[in-house]
Every structure is written in C-alpha cells, then in structure tokens.
Amino acid sequence: MKKKLTYLISVFIFAAFLCACSEGEGSAADTADSVEEVTINSVKDTADDTEDAESDAAGSAYADIYISEIEKLSSSGEADLFALVYVDDDEIPELAAVSSEGSWDKDQVFLYTADGKETVLLASDIAPGMEGHYIAFFEKENIIVKSGAAIGAEFKFIKIENHKPVETLRCSRIQMTDADGNDIDVCKVNDKEVSADEYIAAMQEAIPSVKMTKLAEEGAADMVSYNVNLDDGYMKLIDAESTPYYSYDEIIGILKK
After folding, report:
1. Segment 154-185, tens digit of pLDDT
2. 186 and 176 Cβ atoms separated by less than 8 Å
3. Domain carrying residue 118
4. Does any domain span residue 50?
5. Can you give the pLDDT at residue 6?
6. How confident is the model at residue 57 (pLDDT cuts 50, 70, 90)?
7. 66: which residues sit within 8 A by CB, 6+ positions away?
8. What mean pLDDT value characterizes the chain?
9. Is position 177 within any domain?
10. Whether the predicted pLDDT of 55 surpasses 50
11. 256: which of 17, 20, 65, 212 is 20 to 30 A away, CA to CA?
C-alpha cells in the first residue's frame, strides 16, 4: 500500500512537471511572437515617419526653390503672373510663369520643375500668337507640347525625366511650293519625311484623350484648356476654359503656407 501511494505521488509530480514545461514553452512562444510583432510594427512606424519627413522636406524644398525663382523673374521683369501646375503625376507641382506684357521680342512664357536644389527650365517661349507659338501640357500625363513654326505647324513633345526635359517626338507639317508652283504640305516625324496619314497617326498616338492646357493665349495671360481635335489632320482646339494666374503676392502666400 505504501509503495503504491509513493508511486501515485511520483506520477502526479511528473505530470505536474510536464504541464509546467508545456506552459513554459507556450509562454516563450507567445513572448517571441509578441517581440516579433512589436519589432515589425516599430520598423513600419519608423519607415512611415521617415517617408512623412522626406515628403515634408521635399514639399518645403520645392516651395523655397520656387519662391527664389519667382523673386528673380519678378525683379527682372521677365514674368509677373504665376501658377502651380501638375505636368507629371508626382506630388511636386511645376511652376508656370508668364508676363502680362505679351512681347514677341523675348521669352515671356516659362515652365519649371524643381530637382530638390534648384529650378530646372522645362520650356520657354515668346508670347503666344506669333507663328503659332505656345507652350502647353496635359495634366498629370507627363506631356509638354511646344508649338511654333515659320510656315505651317511644328509640335515638339517633351516629358520630364529625372527632373529634366526630354524631347520624345517632333511632328511638323510645313506648307511649301513644288516645282510646278503648286502648294503642298511636307510632313515630317522626327525629321523624317512621311505621308500625311503617318503624320496624323503619330500625332494621334502622342495626344492623350484629356484636355490640353496652354500656359498663355493670344491676347490674354490666362491658362486656357482645350479639347484637341485632329479629325481633318490639323490640330483644332475647341471648348476653351480659362484659368487665371496668381499675382506675385498671391503665389508667395500660397507657397509659404
């Protein structure tokens, strides 16, 4: 009887020991999971904080850079009207600047981006109207159009790449006279002579189905947005919608917010 009782007590102690070990292992596993979860959340929070800080720094950087450029353009008399526009689809806007003077003797329409240190000129031109000159863009499509030719039409398509302007396409349709004295159109795509159909196809492929915004229009220093029509082979701009620019004081106030 005594031996049997001793045996039962031993079994009970051993069973209790196994239970304790099992609970200890579970606690250790739970603790490891908790530590891992805390570590992952901590790393994620740090990454989010870093991203927010970088975004704030980038926002502050472009604002200061644009303020500096606006002060230069204003003090030199090159431009007196300004706006922030979105050419590509990142969070940093581009800076449009024009002069209300409307001169054809010097560049008075400007489009800039910022590389984090300084402004980068994407395109500039004389006041619109003379020989079809204008600068336009398709919002958030990363497409800038620079137009102007002595006779006929020429369109340069430009995109922003690494904060710099890169020409992606050039299409021209120039009116000339052949050997018999007949008026003809000479079409070119990237300096290669092509048929009228090939010219139209290249233009249609380059132009997205959203409104194109001119930085300035003849006789008005407003931004003007149009729907683009190429049905007859020529660029027609319809359904105009104007957007006014900001004065020096207004744009500085916006950038300092």
Report:
1. 999 999 999 999 999 999 998 888 888 888 88
2. yes
3. 59-255
4. no
5. 45
6. low
7. 84, 95, 112, 114, 119, 255
8. 82
9. yes
10. no
11. 212
Extract the tokens encoding 22: 């099992």
Predicted confidence at residue 179, as pLDDT, reads: 82
Q: Do the domain assignments include residue 85?
A: yes
The domain tally of the chain equals 1
Q: Is the pLDDT of residue 18 over 80?
A: no
Q: What is this structure's pTM?
A: 0.76
175-183 long-range Cβ contacts below 8 angstroms, 24+ apart:
175/151, 176/151
Residue 150 lies in a domain: yes
Beta strands in the chain (DSSP E): 81-85, 94-98, 109-114, 119-125, 134-138, 143-147, 153-161, 164-177, 183-189, 192-194, 212-214, 223-229, 236-243
Residues 6+ apart with CB under 8 A from 140: 86, 87, 88, 89
First CA to last CA across the chain, in angstroms? Answer: 91
Going by the DSSP 8-state scheme, the letter that residue 136 receives in this structure is E
Q: Is the dihedral of CA 57, 58, 61, 66 positive or negative?
A: negative
Q: Are 225 and 211 in contact (CB under 8 A)?
A: yes
Round the CA-based radius of gyration of the chain to a whole number and report it. Answer: 33
